[in-house]
Amino acid sequence: MFIPPFFYLSPQWLTRLLLLALLLLVAMPVAAQWFDGQTGRWPAQLISLLVSAWLLWLVDAGYVTAWRVAVAMSILLGFVAFALSLLLGQWALMLAGLLFMVLGLSLVGLPLVREYLNGRWAARGVVIPE
After folding, report:
1. What local confidence, expressed as pLDDT, does residue 106 receive?
2. Residue closest to 97 by CA, chosen among 107, 111, 86, 106
3. Which DSSP string corresponds to the chain?
4. Measured distance CA(130)–CA(128) in Å, rounded
5. How far is 4 from 65, CA to CA, in rounded Å?
6. What percent of the chain has pLDDT over 70?
């Protein structure tokens, strides 16, 4: 199987890079609102960011349910954002939706990521059928 040269990272670093990209994609709209001075809902937004970071940390720790939730939410919400962008005509929302879908699918489909996650799951005694 051909793997492009830029994916010659270790499976651990590639997985963590994808998880970090998901977290940054979640944090971008919140940070943009805070920099714009819209801090009226900061407690709820901070809790949302902390829960997102905790979920992605659980994925890296080897919790299968957290991985399933993260993948399902990123693909589903990415599709919703993409569909809304088509209705609203906003290219930034379209790009964010596509990135969410690509990152979610990467957590499932990239062999290096699955190798790392399968190792984490095996360390916890969980066997996932291929």
Report:
1. 95
2. 86
3. ----GGG-S-HHHHHHHHHHHHHHHHHHHHHHHHHTT--TTHHHHHHHHHHHHHHHHHHHHT-HHHHHHHHHHHHHHHHHHHHHHHHHT-HHHHHHHHHHHHHHHHHHH-HHHHHHHHHHHHHTT-----
4. 6
5. 30
6. 92
* CA–CA separation, 82 and 92 (whole Å): 10
pLDDT in tens, 16-60: 999 999 999 999 999 999 999 888 989 999 999 999 999 999 999
Place of tokens 């890079």: 17
In angstroms, the CA 92 to CA 103 distance is 16
Whole-model pTM above 0.90? no
Question: What is the torsional sign of CA 68, 107, 128, 124?
Answer: negative
